[in-house]
Write a structure and sequence with these properties.
- By secondary structure, the chain is α+β, with helices and mostly antiparallel strands.
- The protein has one domain.
- Helix content is 49%, strand content 18%.
- The chain has eight helices and seven strands; from the N terminus they run H-H-H-E-E-E-H-E-H-H-H-H-E-E-E.
- Strands 3-2-1-7 form a four-stranded mixed beta sheet, with no helix packed on it.
- Helix 3 crosses helix 8 and helix 5 crosses helix 6.
- The longest helix has 16 residues.
- The protein starts with a helix and ends with a strand.
- The mean pLDDT is 90.
Length: 189
Protein backbone atom coordinates (compact mmCIF):
# COMPACT_ATOMS: atom_id res chain seq x y z
CA UNK A 1 0.00 0.00 0.00
CA UNK A 2 1.34 3.40 -0.98
CA UNK A 3 1.31 5.96 1.81
CA UNK A 4 1.38 9.74 1.73
CA UNK A 5 5.01 9.50 2.92
CA UNK A 6 5.84 7.34 -0.15
CA UNK A 7 4.33 9.94 -2.45
CA UNK A 8 6.28 12.76 -0.77
CA UNK A 9 9.51 10.74 -1.18
CA UNK A 10 8.71 10.04 -4.84
CA UNK A 11 8.05 13.75 -5.49
CA UNK A 12 11.41 14.59 -3.92
CA UNK A 13 13.23 12.07 -6.15
CA UNK A 14 11.44 13.37 -9.25
CA UNK A 15 12.34 16.96 -8.33
CA UNK A 16 16.01 15.99 -7.81
CA UNK A 17 16.16 14.28 -11.20
CA UNK A 18 14.53 17.28 -12.89
CA UNK A 19 16.86 19.74 -11.14
CA UNK A 20 19.85 17.70 -12.32
CA UNK A 21 18.48 17.67 -15.88
CA UNK A 22 18.33 13.87 -15.88
CA UNK A 23 15.14 13.53 -17.90
CA UNK A 24 16.34 10.33 -19.62
CA UNK A 25 16.56 8.56 -16.25
CA UNK A 26 13.18 9.93 -15.27
CA UNK A 27 11.69 8.70 -18.54
CA UNK A 28 13.25 5.26 -18.12
CA UNK A 29 11.76 5.01 -14.61
CA UNK A 30 8.31 6.17 -15.64
CA UNK A 31 8.28 4.42 -19.01
CA UNK A 32 6.72 5.53 -22.27
CA UNK A 33 3.39 3.66 -21.81
CA UNK A 34 2.91 5.29 -18.40
CA UNK A 35 3.83 8.68 -19.84
CA UNK A 36 1.25 8.23 -22.60
CA UNK A 37 -1.37 7.25 -20.01
CA UNK A 38 -0.50 10.36 -17.99
CA UNK A 39 -0.93 12.49 -21.11
CA UNK A 40 -4.35 10.92 -21.68
CA UNK A 41 -5.35 11.65 -18.08
CA UNK A 42 -4.13 15.26 -18.42
CA UNK A 43 -6.10 15.61 -21.67
CA UNK A 44 -9.22 14.31 -19.94
CA UNK A 45 -9.20 17.35 -17.67
CA UNK A 46 -9.21 19.62 -20.74
CA UNK A 47 -12.00 17.96 -22.71
CA UNK A 48 -14.69 20.13 -24.19
CA UNK A 49 -18.33 19.21 -23.95
CA UNK A 50 -19.80 18.08 -27.28
CA UNK A 51 -23.11 19.74 -28.04
CA UNK A 52 -25.14 18.36 -30.94
CA UNK A 53 -27.77 20.98 -31.65
CA UNK A 54 -31.34 20.44 -32.78
CA UNK A 55 -30.18 21.10 -36.36
CA UNK A 56 -27.32 18.56 -35.92
CA UNK A 57 -24.41 20.96 -35.66
CA UNK A 58 -21.48 19.52 -33.67
CA UNK A 59 -20.13 22.19 -31.29
CA UNK A 60 -17.13 22.08 -28.94
CA UNK A 61 -17.86 25.14 -26.75
CA UNK A 62 -14.68 24.97 -24.64
CA UNK A 63 -12.59 25.13 -27.83
CA UNK A 64 -14.97 27.61 -29.53
CA UNK A 65 -15.11 25.31 -32.56
CA UNK A 66 -17.66 23.59 -34.75
CA UNK A 67 -16.89 20.16 -36.20
CA UNK A 68 -18.29 20.27 -39.73
CA UNK A 69 -19.15 16.85 -41.12
CA UNK A 70 -21.41 15.56 -43.92
CA UNK A 71 -24.76 14.06 -42.81
CA UNK A 72 -23.70 10.38 -43.22
CA UNK A 73 -20.67 10.98 -41.00
CA UNK A 74 -22.83 12.68 -38.38
CA UNK A 75 -25.28 9.76 -38.43
CA UNK A 76 -22.44 7.25 -37.92
CA UNK A 77 -20.96 9.32 -35.07
CA UNK A 78 -24.31 9.66 -33.29
CA UNK A 79 -24.88 5.91 -33.67
CA UNK A 80 -21.63 5.25 -31.81
CA UNK A 81 -22.50 7.84 -29.16
CA UNK A 82 -25.81 6.01 -28.67
CA UNK A 83 -23.92 2.73 -28.08
CA UNK A 84 -21.13 3.34 -25.55
CA UNK A 85 -20.65 -0.43 -25.21
CA UNK A 86 -19.19 -0.37 -28.73
CA UNK A 87 -20.11 -1.92 -32.06
CA UNK A 88 -18.15 -4.26 -34.27
CA UNK A 89 -17.95 -2.91 -37.81
CA UNK A 90 -18.90 -6.32 -39.17
CA UNK A 91 -22.14 -6.11 -37.15
CA UNK A 92 -23.18 -2.64 -38.33
CA UNK A 93 -25.91 -4.28 -40.39
CA UNK A 94 -27.68 -4.99 -37.06
CA UNK A 95 -27.96 -1.21 -36.61
CA UNK A 96 -29.06 -0.46 -40.18
CA UNK A 97 -32.54 0.78 -39.23
CA UNK A 98 -31.24 3.11 -36.50
CA UNK A 99 -28.52 4.41 -38.83
CA UNK A 100 -31.05 4.98 -41.62
CA UNK A 101 -33.36 6.89 -39.28
CA UNK A 102 -30.48 9.08 -38.10
CA UNK A 103 -29.32 9.77 -41.66
CA UNK A 104 -32.88 10.68 -42.75
CA UNK A 105 -33.23 13.07 -39.81
CA UNK A 106 -29.90 14.77 -40.52
CA UNK A 107 -29.93 14.73 -44.33
CA UNK A 108 -33.41 16.14 -44.82
CA UNK A 109 -32.70 17.17 -48.42
CA UNK A 110 -31.25 13.83 -49.49
CA UNK A 111 -33.59 11.51 -51.40
CA UNK A 112 -34.42 8.05 -50.05
CA UNK A 113 -32.60 6.20 -52.84
CA UNK A 114 -29.31 7.95 -52.02
CA UNK A 115 -29.84 7.35 -48.30
CA UNK A 116 -30.48 3.62 -48.80
CA UNK A 117 -27.51 3.20 -51.12
CA UNK A 118 -25.16 5.04 -48.73
CA UNK A 119 -26.35 3.05 -45.72
CA UNK A 120 -26.03 -0.26 -47.61
CA UNK A 121 -22.40 0.56 -48.41
CA UNK A 122 -21.76 1.69 -44.84
CA UNK A 123 -23.05 -1.50 -43.21
CA UNK A 124 -21.55 -3.90 -45.76
CA UNK A 125 -18.61 -5.85 -44.32
CA UNK A 126 -17.29 -6.12 -47.89
CA UNK A 127 -17.08 -2.35 -48.38
CA UNK A 128 -14.50 -0.01 -46.85
CA UNK A 129 -17.03 2.82 -46.45
CA UNK A 130 -17.21 2.67 -42.65
CA UNK A 131 -13.41 2.90 -42.33
CA UNK A 132 -13.36 5.86 -44.71
CA UNK A 133 -16.07 7.63 -42.71
CA UNK A 134 -14.34 6.95 -39.38
CA UNK A 135 -11.05 8.28 -40.79
CA UNK A 136 -12.78 11.45 -42.01
CA UNK A 137 -14.42 11.95 -38.62
CA UNK A 138 -11.06 11.51 -36.89
CA UNK A 139 -9.26 13.96 -39.20
CA UNK A 140 -12.01 16.57 -38.78
CA UNK A 141 -11.91 16.37 -34.98
CA UNK A 142 -8.08 16.41 -35.15
CA UNK A 143 -8.23 19.94 -36.58
CA UNK A 144 -9.80 21.10 -33.30
CA UNK A 145 -7.56 19.49 -30.66
CA UNK A 146 -4.35 17.68 -29.79
CA UNK A 147 -3.83 13.93 -30.26
CA UNK A 148 -4.53 13.07 -26.62
CA UNK A 149 -7.84 14.91 -26.53
CA UNK A 150 -8.66 13.43 -29.94
CA UNK A 151 -8.44 9.91 -28.51
CA UNK A 152 -11.64 10.63 -26.53
CA UNK A 153 -13.66 11.93 -29.51
CA UNK A 154 -12.76 9.49 -32.28
CA UNK A 155 -14.27 6.11 -33.08
CA UNK A 156 -11.52 3.79 -31.88
CA UNK A 157 -10.72 0.18 -31.03
CA UNK A 158 -12.19 -1.35 -27.93
CA UNK A 159 -11.24 -5.04 -27.86
CA UNK A 160 -13.23 -7.30 -25.56
CA UNK A 161 -11.69 -10.67 -24.66
CA UNK A 162 -13.98 -13.63 -23.99
CA UNK A 163 -13.03 -16.97 -22.51
CA UNK A 164 -15.50 -19.76 -23.03
CA UNK A 165 -15.01 -23.23 -21.63
CA UNK A 166 -11.47 -24.40 -21.13
CA UNK A 167 -9.48 -23.51 -24.25
CA UNK A 168 -11.75 -21.19 -26.25
CA UNK A 169 -10.65 -17.57 -26.35
CA UNK A 170 -12.18 -15.12 -28.77
CA UNK A 171 -12.19 -11.37 -29.16
CA UNK A 172 -14.79 -8.84 -30.15
CA UNK A 173 -13.14 -6.03 -32.08
CA UNK A 174 -15.60 -3.35 -31.06
CA UNK A 175 -15.28 0.31 -31.91
CA UNK A 176 -16.47 3.00 -29.54
CA UNK A 177 -16.18 6.65 -28.58
CA UNK A 178 -14.62 7.03 -25.13
CA UNK A 179 -15.81 10.59 -24.52
CA UNK A 180 -17.53 10.60 -21.10
CA UNK A 181 -21.25 10.76 -21.86
CA UNK A 182 -21.83 13.43 -19.22
CA UNK A 183 -19.96 15.75 -21.62
CA UNK A 184 -22.37 14.99 -24.49
CA UNK A 185 -25.55 17.00 -25.02
CA UNK A 186 -27.91 16.01 -27.81
CA UNK A 187 -30.50 18.74 -28.24
CA UNK A 188 -32.43 16.89 -30.94
CA UNK A 189 -33.75 14.19 -28.62
Amino acid sequence: MITDQDIIHLQAVVNELKAAGRYNELLSIVGVPTLQQLNLEAAKARLSPLVITSDYRFLLPAYKKEVVLPPIHKALYILFLNHPEGIEYKRLVDYKEELTDLYRSIGTRINDHVIEKSIDRLVSPLDNSVNEKAARIKSTFAMCMDEYQLSYYMIANHTVRHIEGSSKIWFERKKSISLPRELVTMEFQ
